[in-house]
Amino acid sequence: MEALEAIYTRRSVRNFKHEPVSEEDLHDLLRAGMQAPSARNEQPWHFIVIDDRAKLHAIPKFHPYSKMLLDAPLAILVCSDRKLESKRASWLQDCSAATQNILLAAHAKGLGAVWLGIFPDSVRVSGMQSLLEIPKDVRPVALVAIGHPESVPEPVDRFNAQRVHRNKW
Q: What molecular function terms (GO) are annotated for this protein (predicted)?
């Protein structure tokens, strides 16, 4: 799949088949996440792969929009490690770029995925920290549910020329 095709056709998938994601595919998704750009090339991220059914089923107890995890074979939590960050506050952008890379890689491999926001919601952040025993210097940022799609929404062209400005507002 070409890069622009992946960008134009990627959709959030919330319905998954009960079929595991291969280790090779998982490796490719993690590698794609780590290829993201980051300020000063700090790469402040860590990734937690969650495939334990009990843990996946616990997340909807504190994250109201994560019910698809009851069927998803796995999820990847993108975190930022404060020890890897300089004084610049670019970690959120860095981890967001890594998350988008994971979403696009999943789509390119024929997998479905959806981005579930964690940071800055304090209930979701503390829920993930507690559930996954995350050190206090590590900040959970985004969770990506991943699996083989049961169905994929049709692509939507979201280009809006009225939102484009040139040289001034």
A: oxidoreductase activity
